[in-house]
Protein backbone atom coordinates (compact mmCIF):
# COMPACT_ATOMS: atom_id res chain seq x y z
CA UNK A 1 0.00 0.00 0.00
CA UNK A 2 1.36 3.40 -1.00
CA UNK A 3 2.19 5.44 2.11
CA UNK A 4 0.34 8.75 2.41
CA UNK A 5 1.13 11.46 4.90
CA UNK A 6 -1.55 13.04 7.09
CA UNK A 7 -1.04 16.30 5.20
CA UNK A 8 -1.80 14.56 1.91
CA UNK A 9 -4.88 12.91 3.35
CA UNK A 10 -6.02 16.25 4.77
CA UNK A 11 -6.19 17.71 1.29
CA UNK A 12 -8.47 14.98 -0.02
CA UNK A 13 -12.21 15.22 -0.54
CA UNK A 14 -14.50 13.34 1.84
CA UNK A 15 -15.25 10.78 -0.82
CA UNK A 16 -11.54 10.17 -1.53
CA UNK A 17 -10.96 9.76 2.20
CA UNK A 18 -13.73 7.15 2.38
CA UNK A 19 -12.09 5.24 -0.45
CA UNK A 20 -8.74 5.38 1.32
CA UNK A 21 -10.43 4.26 4.50
CA UNK A 22 -12.06 1.37 2.67
CA UNK A 23 -8.66 0.33 1.40
CA UNK A 24 -7.19 0.27 4.89
CA UNK A 25 -6.09 3.80 5.79
CA UNK A 26 -7.52 4.20 9.30
CA UNK A 27 -6.09 7.73 9.46
CA UNK A 28 -8.45 8.75 6.65
CA UNK A 29 -11.38 8.00 8.93
CA UNK A 30 -9.86 10.04 11.75
CA UNK A 31 -9.75 13.01 9.39
CA UNK A 32 -13.44 12.55 8.61
CA UNK A 33 -14.14 12.51 12.35
CA UNK A 34 -12.21 15.78 12.70
CA UNK A 35 -14.08 17.33 9.79
CA UNK A 36 -17.59 16.34 10.75
CA UNK A 37 -17.90 15.93 14.52
CA UNK A 38 -18.96 19.54 15.11
CA UNK A 39 -21.37 19.58 12.18
CA UNK A 40 -23.05 16.31 13.15
CA UNK A 41 -23.14 17.46 16.77
CA UNK A 42 -24.77 20.74 15.81
CA UNK A 43 -27.35 18.93 13.71
CA UNK A 44 -28.14 16.26 16.29
CA UNK A 45 -28.39 18.79 19.10
CA UNK A 46 -31.14 20.65 17.24
CA UNK A 47 -32.85 17.32 16.80
CA UNK A 48 -32.50 15.98 20.36
CA UNK A 49 -32.03 19.14 22.41
CA UNK A 50 -30.25 17.01 24.97
CA UNK A 51 -26.50 17.18 25.36
CA UNK A 52 -25.91 13.61 26.51
CA UNK A 53 -28.19 12.04 23.90
CA UNK A 54 -26.60 14.21 21.26
CA UNK A 55 -23.03 13.16 22.09
CA UNK A 56 -24.06 9.51 22.31
CA UNK A 57 -25.66 9.78 18.89
CA UNK A 58 -22.61 11.47 17.39
CA UNK A 59 -20.44 8.61 18.65
CA UNK A 60 -22.93 6.05 17.40
CA UNK A 61 -23.07 7.72 13.99
CA UNK A 62 -19.31 7.46 13.52
CA UNK A 63 -19.27 3.93 14.87
CA UNK A 64 -21.91 2.94 12.30
CA UNK A 65 -19.92 4.58 9.53
CA UNK A 66 -16.82 2.77 10.71
CA UNK A 67 -18.54 -0.60 10.78
CA UNK A 68 -20.39 -0.22 7.50
CA UNK A 69 -17.56 1.47 5.60
CA UNK A 70 -17.81 -1.12 2.85
CA UNK A 71 -21.45 -0.37 2.15
CA UNK A 72 -20.57 3.21 1.18
CA UNK A 73 -20.53 3.75 -2.57
CA UNK A 74 -19.07 6.79 -4.20
CA UNK A 75 -22.29 7.62 -6.05
CA UNK A 76 -23.43 9.34 -2.85
CA UNK A 77 -21.77 12.31 -1.21
CA UNK A 78 -20.16 11.23 2.03
CA UNK A 79 -21.95 13.97 4.00
CA UNK A 80 -25.34 12.93 2.63
CA UNK A 81 -24.72 9.32 3.61
CA UNK A 82 -23.52 10.40 7.04
CA UNK A 83 -26.54 12.65 7.72
CA UNK A 84 -28.85 9.81 6.67
CA UNK A 85 -27.25 7.56 9.27
CA UNK A 86 -27.41 10.32 11.91
CA UNK A 87 -31.09 11.06 11.21
CA UNK A 88 -32.05 7.41 11.36
CA UNK A 89 -30.29 7.00 14.69
CA UNK A 90 -31.93 10.16 16.04
CA UNK A 91 -35.36 8.93 14.93
CA UNK A 92 -34.83 5.54 16.55
CA UNK A 93 -33.81 7.17 19.80
CA UNK A 94 -36.79 9.51 19.64
CA UNK A 95 -39.17 6.58 19.17
CA UNK A 96 -37.52 4.64 21.98
CA UNK A 97 -37.82 7.60 24.31
CA UNK A 98 -41.41 8.22 23.35
CA UNK A 99 -42.21 4.68 24.33
CA UNK A 100 -40.40 4.93 27.63
CA UNK A 101 -41.51 8.33 28.83
CA UNK A 102 -42.49 11.78 27.79
CA UNK A 103 -39.36 13.47 26.52
CA UNK A 104 -38.05 16.66 28.04
CA UNK A 105 -38.16 19.40 25.46
CA UNK A 106 -36.02 21.88 27.31
CA UNK A 107 -32.34 22.04 27.79
CA UNK A 108 -30.89 21.26 31.17
CA UNK A 109 -29.95 24.54 32.89
CA UNK A 110 -27.58 22.66 35.20
CA UNK A 111 -25.70 21.07 32.33
CA UNK A 112 -22.40 22.91 32.02
CA UNK A 113 -21.76 21.31 28.65
CA UNK A 114 -24.97 22.71 27.23
CA UNK A 115 -23.61 25.90 25.85
CA UNK A 116 -23.47 28.12 22.81
CA UNK A 117 -20.45 29.50 21.05
CA UNK A 118 -20.29 33.14 22.06
CA UNK A 119 -20.40 35.33 19.01
CA UNK A 120 -20.78 38.79 20.45
CA UNK A 121 -21.43 41.61 18.02
CA UNK A 122 -19.41 44.62 19.31
CA UNK A 123 -22.15 46.95 18.06
CA UNK A 124 -24.66 45.48 20.46
CA UNK A 125 -25.31 47.22 23.76
CA UNK A 126 -25.51 45.04 26.90
CA UNK A 127 -29.32 45.22 26.78
CA UNK A 128 -29.25 44.01 23.21
CA UNK A 129 -26.92 41.18 24.13
CA UNK A 130 -29.32 40.02 26.85
CA UNK A 131 -32.27 40.39 24.51
CA UNK A 132 -30.47 38.53 21.75
CA UNK A 133 -29.69 35.66 24.10
CA UNK A 134 -33.33 35.56 25.21
CA UNK A 135 -34.45 35.53 21.58
CA UNK A 136 -32.12 32.66 20.73
CA UNK A 137 -33.47 30.70 23.69
CA UNK A 138 -37.00 31.31 22.44
CA UNK A 139 -36.09 30.13 18.95
CA UNK A 140 -34.56 26.97 20.45
CA UNK A 141 -37.75 26.41 22.42
CA UNK A 142 -39.97 27.03 19.40
CA UNK A 143 -37.88 24.67 17.29
CA UNK A 144 -38.60 21.88 19.74
CA UNK A 145 -42.31 22.63 19.49
CA UNK A 146 -42.72 22.25 15.75
CA UNK A 147 -43.45 18.77 14.50
CA UNK A 148 -40.59 16.38 13.84
CA UNK A 149 -41.28 16.27 10.10
CA UNK A 150 -40.84 20.05 9.87
CA UNK A 151 -37.95 20.26 12.31
CA UNK A 152 -35.88 17.71 10.39
CA UNK A 153 -35.95 19.68 7.14
CA UNK A 154 -35.63 23.21 8.49
CA UNK A 155 -32.60 22.18 10.54
CA UNK A 156 -30.99 20.63 7.49
CA UNK A 157 -31.73 23.69 5.37
CA UNK A 158 -31.46 26.73 7.64
CA UNK A 159 -28.97 25.53 10.23
CA UNK A 160 -26.87 22.95 8.41
CA UNK A 161 -27.27 24.87 5.14
CA UNK A 162 -27.57 21.81 2.95
CA UNK A 163 -28.88 22.04 -0.60
CA UNK A 164 -32.40 20.91 -1.46
CA UNK A 165 -30.96 18.02 -3.45
CA UNK A 166 -29.00 16.82 -0.44
CA UNK A 167 -32.08 17.10 1.77
CA UNK A 168 -34.18 15.03 -0.64
CA UNK A 169 -31.47 12.36 -0.66
CA UNK A 170 -31.14 12.30 3.13
CA UNK A 171 -34.85 12.28 3.90
CA UNK A 172 -35.96 10.22 0.91
CA UNK A 173 -38.74 12.74 0.31
CA UNK A 174 -39.72 14.20 -3.06
CA UNK A 175 -38.45 17.73 -3.77
CA UNK A 176 -41.97 19.21 -3.62
CA UNK A 177 -42.56 17.75 -0.17
CA UNK A 178 -39.21 19.03 1.09
CA UNK A 179 -39.95 22.56 -0.09
CA UNK A 180 -43.47 22.54 1.26
CA UNK A 181 -42.29 21.24 4.65
CA UNK A 182 -39.53 23.82 4.84
CA UNK A 183 -41.95 26.67 4.09
CA UNK A 184 -44.53 25.37 6.52
CA UNK A 185 -41.91 24.63 9.17
CA UNK A 186 -40.50 28.17 8.98
CA UNK A 187 -43.96 29.69 9.06
CA UNK A 188 -45.09 27.50 11.94
CA UNK A 189 -41.96 28.36 13.91
CA UNK A 190 -42.70 32.05 13.45
CA UNK A 191 -46.29 31.54 14.60
CA UNK A 192 -45.00 29.96 17.81
CA UNK A 193 -42.48 32.77 18.30
CA UNK A 194 -45.24 35.33 17.99
CA UNK A 195 -46.94 33.82 21.04
CA UNK A 196 -43.82 34.49 23.15
CA UNK A 197 -43.53 37.85 24.80
CA UNK A 198 -40.05 38.67 23.51
CA UNK A 199 -38.93 41.37 21.13
CA UNK A 200 -37.42 39.39 18.27
CA UNK A 201 -36.26 42.44 16.33
CA UNK A 202 -32.65 42.11 17.53
CA UNK A 203 -32.21 38.86 15.68
CA UNK A 204 -34.63 39.47 12.84
CA UNK A 205 -33.19 42.78 11.69
CA UNK B 1 -54.89 27.96 4.43
CA UNK B 2 -51.63 26.07 4.12
CA UNK B 3 -53.40 23.20 2.35
CA UNK B 4 -54.39 25.65 -0.38
CA UNK B 5 -50.79 26.35 -1.29
CA UNK B 6 -49.89 23.92 -4.02
CA UNK B 7 -46.50 22.54 -4.97
CA UNK B 8 -45.79 25.14 -7.66
CA UNK B 9 -46.56 27.93 -5.25
CA UNK B 10 -44.22 26.37 -2.67
CA UNK B 11 -41.52 26.40 -5.31
CA UNK B 12 -42.00 30.14 -5.80
CA UNK B 13 -42.22 30.77 -2.08
CA UNK B 14 -38.88 29.08 -1.32
CA UNK B 15 -37.15 31.09 -4.03
CA UNK B 16 -38.81 34.31 -2.87
CA UNK B 17 -38.00 33.73 0.81
CA UNK B 18 -34.40 32.75 0.11
CA UNK B 19 -33.85 35.61 -2.35
CA UNK B 20 -32.89 33.33 -5.24
CA UNK B 21 -35.75 34.39 -7.48
CA UNK B 22 -35.12 36.08 -10.80
CA UNK B 23 -35.77 39.85 -10.26
CA UNK B 24 -38.47 40.02 -12.94
CA UNK B 25 -40.29 36.99 -11.55
CA UNK B 26 -39.85 38.42 -8.06
CA UNK B 27 -41.60 41.61 -9.05
CA UNK B 28 -44.52 39.69 -10.56
CA UNK B 29 -44.69 37.39 -7.55
CA UNK B 30 -44.65 40.43 -5.26
CA UNK B 31 -47.67 41.77 -7.12
CA UNK B 32 -49.38 38.38 -6.76
CA UNK B 33 -48.76 38.51 -3.00
CA UNK B 34 -50.36 41.96 -2.80
CA UNK B 35 -53.52 40.43 -4.22
CA UNK B 36 -53.42 37.36 -1.97
CA UNK B 37 -53.33 38.45 1.60
CA UNK B 38 -53.26 34.97 3.17
CA UNK B 39 -50.37 33.78 1.02
CA UNK B 40 -48.56 37.05 1.74
CA UNK B 41 -48.93 36.49 5.48
CA UNK B 42 -47.66 32.94 5.11
CA UNK B 43 -44.63 34.16 3.15
CA UNK B 44 -43.87 36.86 5.70
CA UNK B 45 -43.96 34.32 8.50
CA UNK B 46 -41.72 31.96 6.54
CA UNK B 47 -39.23 34.80 5.99
CA UNK B 48 -39.14 35.66 9.69
CA UNK B 49 -39.01 32.01 10.71
CA UNK B 50 -36.03 31.48 8.41
CA UNK B 51 -34.17 34.46 9.88
CA UNK B 52 -34.90 33.23 13.39
CA UNK B 53 -33.51 29.79 12.56
CA UNK B 54 -30.41 31.30 11.04
CA UNK B 55 -29.80 33.26 14.22
CA UNK B 56 -29.09 30.04 16.09
CA UNK B 57 -25.39 29.80 16.69
CA UNK B 58 -23.48 26.58 16.31
CA UNK B 59 -23.70 24.20 19.22
CA UNK B 60 -20.16 23.35 20.09
CA UNK B 61 -19.30 19.76 20.88
CA UNK B 62 -17.29 19.02 24.03
CA UNK B 63 -13.61 19.63 23.46
CA UNK B 64 -12.79 15.95 23.88
CA UNK B 65 -15.64 14.47 21.84
CA UNK B 66 -13.47 13.74 18.80
CA UNK B 67 -10.97 11.89 20.97
CA UNK B 68 -13.72 9.97 22.71
CA UNK B 69 -15.13 8.87 19.35
CA UNK B 70 -11.70 7.71 18.20
CA UNK B 71 -11.10 5.85 21.47
CA UNK B 72 -14.51 4.20 21.35
CA UNK B 73 -13.91 3.02 17.79
CA UNK B 74 -10.48 1.70 18.71
CA UNK B 75 -12.01 -0.13 21.68
CA UNK B 76 -14.77 -1.54 19.53
CA UNK B 77 -12.27 -2.61 16.91
CA UNK B 78 -10.12 -4.31 19.54
CA UNK B 79 -13.14 -6.13 20.97
CA UNK B 80 -13.98 -7.36 17.45
CA UNK B 81 -10.49 -8.65 16.82
CA UNK B 82 -10.35 -10.29 20.28
CA UNK B 83 -13.62 -12.00 19.49
CA UNK B 84 -12.32 -13.14 16.09
CA UNK B 85 -9.20 -14.51 17.74
CA UNK B 86 -11.27 -16.28 20.39
CA UNK B 87 -13.61 -17.70 17.74
CA UNK B 88 -10.76 -18.98 15.61
CA UNK B 89 -9.13 -20.67 18.63
CA UNK B 90 -12.47 -22.23 19.57
CA UNK B 91 -13.08 -23.37 16.03
CA UNK B 92 -9.59 -24.88 15.85
CA UNK B 93 -10.22 -26.69 19.13
CA UNK B 94 -13.51 -28.01 17.84
CA UNK B 95 -11.90 -29.23 14.64
CA UNK B 96 -9.03 -30.88 16.46
CA UNK B 97 -10.50 -31.97 19.83
CA UNK B 98 -7.46 -34.14 20.43
CA UNK B 99 -5.43 -30.98 21.12
CA UNK B 100 -7.56 -30.37 24.20
CA UNK B 101 -5.99 -33.32 25.93
Main attributes?
heterodimer; A: 205 residues; mainly alpha; Rna Polymerase Sigma Factor, Chain: A; Arc Repressor Mutant, subunit A; 2 domains; elongated; B: 101 residues; 4 helices
Structure description:
The complex is a heterodimer of chains A (205) and B (101). With 205 residues, chain A is mainly α. Chain A has two domains: 12-106, RNA polymerase sigma factor, region 2, helix turn helix motif (Rna Polymerase Sigma Factor, Chain: A, Orthogonal Bundle), CATH 1.10.1740.10; 116-205, Winged helix-like DNA-binding domain superfamily/Winged helix DNA-binding domain (Arc Repressor Mutant, subunit A). Helix content of chain A is 69%, strand content 0%. Chain A has helices spanning 6-10, 14-22, 26-48, 51-67, 78-100, 126-145, 148-159, 164-171, 175-195, 201-204. Chain A is elongated, with a radius of gyration of 19 Å. With 101 residues, chain B is an all-alpha fold. Chain B has two domains: 2-54, no CATH class; 65-100. Chain B has helices at 7-18, 23-35, 37-54, 65-95. Chain B starts with 6 loop residues before the first helix and ends in a 6-residue tail after the last helix. At the A-B interface, helix 3, helix 4, helix 6, helix 7 and helix 9 of A face helix 1, helix 3 and helix 4 of B.
- Poorly predicted runs of chain A: none
Instruction: Please name the fourth-level CATH homologous superfamily of the largest domain in chain A.
Output: RNA polymerase sigma factor, region 2, helix turn helix motif
Percent of residues in helices of chain B comes to over 70%
Mean pLDDT of chain A: 85
Largest sheet of chain A: none
Count of beta strands of chain B: 0
Mean pLDDT of chain B: 84
Shape type of chain A: elongated
Strand content of chain B: under 5%
Query: Looking at the chains present, what oligomeric state does this protein adopt?
Result: heterodimer
Total strands of chain A:
0
The main sheet of chain B comes to: none
In DSSP terms (H or I, runs of 4 or more residues), the helix count of chain B works out at: 4
Helix count, DSSP H or I runs of 4 or more residues of chain A:
10
**Category by helix and strand content of chain B:** mainly alpha
As a whole number of angstroms, the C-alpha radius of gyration of chain A is: 19 Å
In N-to-C order, the SSE pattern of chain B is HHHH
Uncertain runs of chain B: none
CATH first level of the largest domain in chain A: Mainly Alpha
Amino acid sequence: MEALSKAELNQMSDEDLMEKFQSGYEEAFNILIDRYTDRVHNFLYRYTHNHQDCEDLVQETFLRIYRSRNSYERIAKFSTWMYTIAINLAKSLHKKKQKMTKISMHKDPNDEEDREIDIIDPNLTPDNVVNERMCVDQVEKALQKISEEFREVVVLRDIQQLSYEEITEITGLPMGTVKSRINRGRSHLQEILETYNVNMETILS
Amino acid sequence: MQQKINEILHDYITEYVEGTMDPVVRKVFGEYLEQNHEVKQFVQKAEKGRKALQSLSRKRASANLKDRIKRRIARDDQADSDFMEFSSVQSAEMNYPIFNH
